[in-house]
Fold:
Amino acid sequence: MDIEKAQEYILRELEARLDSTLFYHGVHHTIDVVHAAMDIARLEGIMDAESIQLLWTAALYHDCGFMTTYRGHEEAGCVVVREVLPGLGYDAEQIEKICGMIMATKIPQSPKNELERVICDADLDYLGRNDFEHISATLFEELKSRDMVEDIPAWDAIQVRFLEAHQYWTVSEQKRRNAVKQRHLKQLKKTARTL
Structure:
């Protein structure tokens, strides 16, 4: 696995091909998910080199399907993975593990193994962080530009439902993020009541 070339390739492609209205799902989100995945893997005690490389690669490629489509981007991302990674030293089994991780991030999330649980938590790590409001505002702008949400009150209602249904899958992320996530949910409910 040539992870350096895999990273170089996809970051260059994302920079060149992602729509400028992907205010949330931009390259910055991909890099954030890579960092979160590595943090969570360390906290979960995942240390074998191949698992880390597969997780890193999946995090890099998890939203690359946005280069061609908005809905169904996970499936589109797997098409990219299956086209690009064989030429970079990834074998069929490794590619299927990466696609499994990408597909697990589809909402509602459905992780089936440890690495899939880690990437799911990394993808939504911000829900339990202090930069939640800023990041959520970028997602609102992205959805609004696609006529997928009408206004802030509608967005707040969507977020309340999403946060109520969401769960972190790893023990480390539950310990690290649940309390702050609940604080955000409480604030959103309070805001929704005052409107």
About this structure: The chain has a mean pLDDT of 97. The longest helix spans residues 171-194. The domain at 3-194 is CATH 1.10.3210.10 (Hypothetical protein af1432).
